[in-house]
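Forwarding the complex inputs:
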Amino acid sequence: MGTMSSDSALFGIDNLPYGVFSPRDAPEERRIGVRLGDRVLDAGAAARALGSPHAAPLSAPSLDALLAAGRPVWRAVRAELRSWLGDAAHRERVEPLLRPLDTVTLHLPFTVADYVDFYSSEHHARNVGEIFRPGGASLTPNWKHMPIGYHGRAGSVRVSGSPVPRPLGQRRPAEGSATPGFGPSQRLDIEAEVGFVVGTGSAPGRPVPLSALREHVFGVCLLNDWSARDIQAWEYVPLGPFLGKSFATSISAWITPLDALDAAWTAPPPRDVPPLPYLDDASAPPGGLDLRLSVLINGHPVAHPPFATMYWTAAQQLAHLTINGAHLRTGDLFASGTVSGAAPEERGCLLELTWNGERPLRLPDGERAFLMDGDRVTLTAWAPGPGGQRIGLGEVSGTVEPTPA
Amino acid sequence: MGTMSSDSALFGIDNLPYGVFSPRDAPEERRIGVRLGDRVLDAGAAARALGSPHAAPLSAPSLDALLAAGRPVWRAVRAELRSWLGDAAHRERVEPLLRPLDTVTLHLPFTVADYVDFYSSEHHARNVGEIFRPGGASLTPNWKHMPIGYHGRAGSVRVSGSPVPRPLGQRRPAEGSATPGFGPSQRLDIEAEVGFVVGTGSAPGRPVPLSALREHVFGVCLLNDWSARDIQAWEYVPLGPFLGKSFATSISAWITPLDALDAAWTAPPPRDVPPLPYLDDASAPPGGLDLRLSVLINGHPVAHPPFATMYWTAAQQLAHLTINGAHLRTGDLFASGTVSGAAPEERGCLLELTWNGERPLRLPDGERAFLMDGDRVTLTAWAPGPGGQRIGLGEVSGTVEPTPA
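Prediction (whole assembly, two chains):
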């Protein structure tokens, strides 16, 4: 194999994310794949060939059955995969079931039930507050007491690589006009986020405690919550974001199991306001995750948001989401909100990076206040793995297309 | 049959709403039922017995396949049902397939894809504005330019009769305190609404025009968007309602096909601000629906909200929902928002009826500012039908239970 490629380093035996693929020559098929380096294992075929007791969920056309199977099955399947792919004894039978990544098409890997988007970076929330409410308090009074969130449109979640047509919509009336503007969004933006995929549901009326995160969450993905800032600014008072967000949300094709991120847990920032007991993680194991994100526009890096700086953790988001008795379903997706660190180059959206367009980015192909048609946005990330290795998260990318005629 | 019962009058041959039932003696089964008076036709059994070409979708365990089949099938199935139930020639074979309503259990009749809740009553929006922003403008500047809406939690939609445990949550800190209140909601409310059920989906990037409502919407239901006003008030700035609503949304077990409401179309209120072209219904057929709602608490009528007074119509809501390129899926549910008329007794939630608790209602069993544990709330409605008849909508009811221990 010669020198280790970047893919091999980021997607080694300690990673093993799950996805759903079609072989290039059978585009109507859907098979569960597990990524190893720049290849994909046909997990169902491997399970059948090797007599796995989990051949049924691994032979399904999506991850739904595996997600629903629960944590003991997730762990058993992961142990099998590590054995199949790592033990010389199995290598001969498994080798023919590994396909080059560039010979498959990747699909949305699970059925999205409800999609919730949080707003859990203090740096992001403060920057947005300063931009939209200059001179006012940058955080709303509730912000340090709960992970603020809202429901997004599950039907608009799409897999990495899907195009993103520029949305049409209303914007605030021009000065002196009584009629709103209307047309393709002029302020199309990204939001670099991390998504959490729920496997095991919960019962209605039974809040999920902080300690139960790993019983319910199967894994993580990268998520780009595309945002039309002009549509959003005009519509969002009083009921929150709607059409400014609902046109597209892209997720990575690969779901990294939480079990691959054992070395990435880290303490969240100090809580300067004591949370209520159901959100108090002072005596819990560290609930932050050290994920290092990068944002690229047309291949050019524009930001490196550090997920470890998020104020509210996934466990707190889950506890809050269910405290009112709402239950979880297999396939629920909840996202962190824009990941922004303290430094200007750590901001996860153009609204912040260009300070609402006032300070355009200089890219090799010109200036950007907001996205132009044809721009390809890619989010990547890695986390510390065992023994100083890196665990890669699958990238999420999308190209902006003109509004359909 | 003697005198015509109220059920017979409201659920006659011109109505024929769809639901999903289990026979009392086979609780695990799910069958499609069609209501006639106080009886339910086993629609799959009838279709098979009478050789219908639509036996497959009618024999499914939910309405999903029928919804997806599209308007030509909806019309053909309705014509068959009218013939089976109305023609003497078929009566003998169909009669044994009619079961008394009180021998079946009704279930959520379709898989809810995305749930969107609008805010389309001007009276409701003005009352809420006056209550929460006294002295300010009662409508936000965008209100007359678009049907304001947001996404709710699809997983919390439940069928009429399901209990509604009182939600737990945070509320605004008491005067002088820095810590939010926490506990069972003290201001549990209802919202009397009408829900629209999407049958035929649409393509991403292709807005649905006003004229296409009936190609996409299969029918209507009654909907109670239970709301915890104290949780909502503390959380909703800046991203809108979340836990104050996400614990429960109840819908009627019966979906009334739009084809049963032909006589109910009516002109919406005059538009005093001209809408943008994609929302302009001035030259369209009347887009309002004359549905007369009633709200009952423990059987006592407390309000009669007139749906015909809604400012924004279902066609406008659908056009707005998709103008940004978001697509529709089978099972999408969008609701009107609280239905409130101009008169005090026409208001569709306790927030308005009691003016934020300041003027409690007097019920036979005592005063109510907001709901008490044990309160049973029922919404009913009827619409004008052919020849002066009334078309009943299935009721939606729910009983408030104490917060689980």
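Chain A touches chain B through 61 residues (CB under 8 Å).
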